[in-house]
# Entry
Amino acid sequence: MQIYLLLLLSVSTSADTLMLPVANICSQPLRLPVIAHKTDTIDLQQLFANSSDLAQVLQNNSANFIKYYGLNGIATLGMRGLGSTQTQVMWNGMSLQHAGVGTIDLSLIPMSMFDKVTIQYGSDPVNNGSGSAGGCITLTSLPSKSTAHVQYQFSSLLNHDFSARTTNQIKSWKYNIGVGVNHRKNRFDFINNTLIESPLQKMPVNLYKAILGFAEIEKLIRKKIKLSTGFWIQNNSRNLPPLMSSLTNNAFQIDNTQRLYLNLTYFSQKLNCDLFSNTQFYALDYIDSSLGIYSLSNTHMSNIITHVKYQFSEKIKAGFESSFIDERVTVSDAYPLPKIRTRLPASIFIEFDNKNLQLQIGSKTEIVNGKLLPILPSVNLLVEASRILALKLATSKHYRLPTINDLYWPVGGNSNLKPEQGFNCQGAITITTDPVTFGANTAVQLISEVGFYYSRITDLIQWQPGNTAFWQAQNLDKIHSNGIEASLKAIGHFKKIKFNQSIHYNLINAYQTLALNTKQLIYTPKHRIQISSTISYLTNHLELNYGYTDRSFTIADNSRWLTPFTTLNLTLAKSFQMHQTDIKIGITAENLLNSSYMVLPNRAMPLRYFKFNININL
Amino acid sequence: MKKQNLLLALVMCSALIACKKDNSEYVEPTPAAPGGYGRNGVFVSCEGSFMNNNGTISFYSKDSSKMFNNIYENANNNISPGDIVQSFTAINGKGYVVVNNSNTIRKVNLLDFKLDTSVAFTLPRFVHYVKNDIAYVSTWENPSAAGKVHFLNIVNNTIVGSVTTGTGPDKMLFDNSNNRVFVLNAGGFSFDSTITVINTNNNSVEATIQTGSYNPSSIAKDANGNLWVLCSGYTDFSTGTEYFGKLIVIDPATLSITKSFAFNEGNPYLTPNKLIMNSSGNTVMYSLNGKIYRMAITAVALPSTAFIERAFYGLSVDPYSNNIYGADARGFVGNGWVIRYSGNGAILDSFQVGIGPNNFEFIN
# Structure
């Protein structure tokens, strides 16, 4: 069955929809372009399967492995086996990582407000900050055209998602404003494999409520000066999904998030300057009545960034960036006193651009609470060997401090933790063909990128079960990670059929070097394949998302593992016009193959279910 | 287009009728013990890692000098007993696998370890056979509030009554001379300082002993019939205040504390635990700061020199051989180990077991 579907996918044809215009985006500090790291871009506007959050988007459209603590549960991404604290998530130049825990729950990032997700594999600290050795996910809005957009989705899990958004560009103004409301029960069928008879069971209601307000506004106030601002306010409350072995809802979590930024930019032919400031506030309440845990914490992070870039000549640019970052956990039942960290990062960079060769050299350091951290150099090289072939090489050093929770969380925090240090090097070959025509009716363009990497991290910080019932933050000595990240896209049309095919493959060898122990890190599948296919015939659309996830080990000696699994989602959509309004309706069968699978032990994932959605573009 | 529609319809139909059941957490299989698990060996309960549903039971056969792992999974279609196997107790040819975070006790046939039945409890900790087909089951109910001891009829698997205890009722000891069960209120995720005494004639709470310290966590009876109780102490994380532990001796007839040894500031990081008694009942041993200490029951002060320089997550004495069994959880991220020592502390051998070994049950 799976082979049959794979064959179908491999021979199906497609259209020219994934190429994105390079449009201005709201308030991104003018950092260096990413030239030497493999990147994948997901154009959300071209997808017919409606993914409600970032975790689903990445799961369906990349070969990255998302750690799901069950539907409605926390979802994190650890690229290259290095853990979620080594994957940055950026919005408008601001890191969304929680200052207290150093990671972010991808299931709480709604996709209705964004147009594009960019996955950067590996990164350097000059461009992406510390804590990004695995990679960086960037969320982007493209308010380049006037739209008013309303979307509603209902699923057989008794979930309702509503969002409305308007974007426009009027003279010197540009904006992207939206709201979202979610009410989900997440009631799904699953096979309970913790019971001998493995019965088909219904997950109890895991209520999820969210409300979201979002705005990005940009104004060209002078010919060379623009001011942009934005906020993102979100409130989520949810029952965390119960364990398969108990099926009782005990844990409840409320996340309150407020993010605000302001950016003043001066730009001329030679000089670009940014004065960027942002502040973020997280309030996290966690209640587990069965364990008697009532935990609340308020975390603030504020920073001010100055960024200057000067074009000395046609071929040489250089610049610097300096920041002031204040991180603090002010209210917490866990800490008797507020925990405050003041950081002063600074970086310099120079870029040579000689037509077919681009070279970036940068260096970064940081003063944290008065202590100077090591200097972190990075080198990025892009060689365009021919019109279709490009070679990329990058290397950098990394350094990441323990988070506030790593150090001070009363049960399991470890004030003796050492910072993570390491380096990575990577290369990639990119082949982008021109559209090739076959007669008058057929054209296809191929885009392929194959990358390889090697990373070594010393003293990787990881929370592990300790010698009590509670997990503890520990340093893992000498983590090695190497692998391949490959993608192939075929975009084109055959008569009136447009097609867009992509296949992504990740190979991860991530292991800890101990005496006689080179076992794969836990929850790091070696192989993951994701195939996405969209086919449009006039106003009819079909999208298939097929994923294969290799087994993932659940304990360090690799004697236990979760079995490999496959998932297939199928979306059928139709678009039409009514009174000059574009309407698109779609139905998605999630997990069409009805696979019973687990991403983490004891965490139920849904069998087949259906989503119906309607999009109205006014 | 018609062909495409037909193909699509075929795909959808064939996919919709498919139901792939490929989910499971697999473990490398091991052969069953020849002759089963009914005699002359040691059961090791292995918690597994928290919330991962991978608790296991191992069995060390003294006849073959071999350790058999995952014996519950091997006998029951590769299904784990559940999340956090807290303890295991053998009673009259049956085994009781106490699965704390799965809120259940799985009753198995001791010989082949096939599941007989499951009985639901809320956060069960230990099963202790008393008499007349009644076993006591300590349950936390709420880790930060009062717990219970339930009276389980082991013939028809029904709960015939229960009493309320202090916070985090844990290990129990039956003193048949005085028809009393002593229930240690170990504090759960909070703290407690009491021992609940239940009269086994009428299954009611007879007394509550104030230990004078916090979190009584282990108990043993010496050759004179006196009860030794180790209180682990308690740390208040909100203030950073540490309340030190105590080793006390209780006269089971009068319920009075006859001796008390304080773990004071003279010792670093004081969370003493895992009190055990040798098979002769004249020497107690306990774990403190990553080492095992021992003292004669006649001693007047706590020992200052360690007996075994190693930390264990589980510790017990084989009452039939006087050998000491230490369980090393090794951080819970891989399989643990059991290290066997002779009664005088010499290492005999070691065996790999499941994740998080914590308790032992000896069977003759």
User: Anything to note?
Assistant: Chain B has a mean pLDDT of 88.
